[in-house]
Amino acid sequence: MGVPAAVGHLDADCFYISAERVRNTFLLGKPVGVLGNQGAFVIAKSYEMKAAGVKTGDPIWEAIVKCPHGVYLKRDFRWYEVLSRLMLDVVREFSPEVEYYSIDEFFFRVPSDSERSLQETAEVMRHRILQQVRVPVTVGIARSKTLAKLISDQAKPFGALALVDPEAERALLDRTAVQEICGIGERRAKRLAEYKVFTALDLALANRKLIRSLLTAVGEALWFELNGDPVLPLYSQRPPHKMLSRGGAIGKPSADFNYIWGWLVRSLERLIEELEYHRVCAGRLETWVMHYDGQVGVGKVELNGPTDRFDLLLEAARLGLRRAWLPRRTVARLNLVATHLQWPGSVQRGLFDPPAERAETLARLKREVNDRCGRFALRSGATLFVNEFYKDEAYSYEVCDVRGKICF
């Protein structure tokens, strides 16, 4: 039997917590928190810990006061990606068109020739993933991506709900605050409130031209989606990157040049991994430095020609840091951003660049050693100043190193 055209959204329930419970059943039913930022902050918490008042982003010292009997673990993004890929394999059993939206979220097209009803599809998919991957998920199915995500959010935890009837959709939108729509933040919600738009239904019933004038084309697309008109594309293949970035907090804030430089080189090696993986070259390298007092410096370096070579990007990073860092000021975060990306086939080598053969040979050797011995087994000597970080396997892999995600 045929089914109506529909889009599904699958979202894992407390994914990082669920992933930890897969390999350690002792954690089942207990208040559990997963820590990031070198163990300083809670980045995920179980429903039991949430009930104790712990919030995402709470410092560990505050979380322990709120939930002294909780179990706090370092995050392991490599393990989380393993389970994420297993979930993706299951979703692809149900649909040939799947968008890997994030490490724990997927959109999928429901085949029109499915023998199951939409509700049966949601329920079977939920139970199949629990059976094969042992991760609880919630599945929402609707006429558009935005509606599907709203439905899965409402159906959590471990829910399965297909909703394509317009009257049922209106009831859902009427009890959903406008800021719960993905793409409507606090600032946009305040602007909409000036025009008496408080709920998702208010937005759906508002004048389309008004919404476009207030929220640009992004808001107009949401207006169509909320009215059951699917205008947002489903990306089964990732669109080409406009930029690639790596970096983040540097462990402990510091004003020591060697320590700061070591962190920047670590970010550069991770960035080059991505340039090579996506087969693009950078035409410009930007170094962003956030100082401990909140001041931000930016150093932009135009390259002689687009490249993914470590030696050329290293010099660009050195110059960028010199431009961005306020001397002797304490640094809290570093980011490297590669922009003006081009495919290698369209790249013309710079006239004054050092010979490429030596750099390419070293890069090939580095890849071969690390493929055989482990990520960063062979790395720049500059990172010796942050060697303690490499000794902890929990920090060898960051969430932005999960490849295939739309948001990275």
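Above is the first protein from milestone M3; the second protein from the same milestone is given next.
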Amino acid sequence: MPKTTTTPRKKADQYNDPSHNYLKYWDGREYEHAAEEIAIRKLLRGRHFNTAVDVGGGYGRLCLLLEKYADDVTLAEPSQQQLDIAKDFLKDHPEVHRKLLQADDLKFPDGSIDLLTMIRVMHHLPDPSAEFAEISRVLSTNGYAIIEVANYLHMRNRLKHLARREHMPVKPVDIRSAANKRDDEIPFVNHNPHTVMRQLEHAGLETVANLSVSNLRSTQLKKILPRGVMLGAERALQRPLASVYFGPSVFFLVRKIQTS
């Protein structure tokens, strides 16, 4: 596994701010949550693991699903406030461990994790090299990671750039409003999936599969279409649209590069 010289990132405790109640954030986002669960099920179908860790998983939203795929599940979250919310959210699942950890310093032994998920974290990471190196370090030889990427190459952006005759950016794009671009604000970026795959490879991780996720994410569509119809379409579209990175979210299934 390649070594990294990246210095440790500052403490990722922004979600200790009382205004960031991640549980309430998901009110009205049932389609997005279900779309992500569909993607995870597709990527993990037929697999089962000893250990699973949900990195940056907030209050444990996806840990309940991961219990179906692993014997031992840990929520690794850098915000104590979110872990406190998780204590109540997961009260009927005491077997899910909760640890105050962040993605660039997971503190698990080398090669000890069989399944790792990192969902809705990349949009806070303009440079994910330290996180990818850490994932590569803790992942077992036959383990897998699912990494979700906020996708700048989604279809609406490509149409906008095409109309302006602009090339799509290779580097992450800060999508915060001018008013929020302060040093004390949480970074919020969209990534080019091709760049992310190169960064993963540099960390010793190869892409096994990818899916286009939340393809119908639209406030207007939610008002018009029943959720069941939207999710039926989502289920059918995730694989066919994966190669063109159609949706605002891309899920990568990765594993350690196998060396002979």
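Note on the second protein: The first helix runs from residue 22 to 25.
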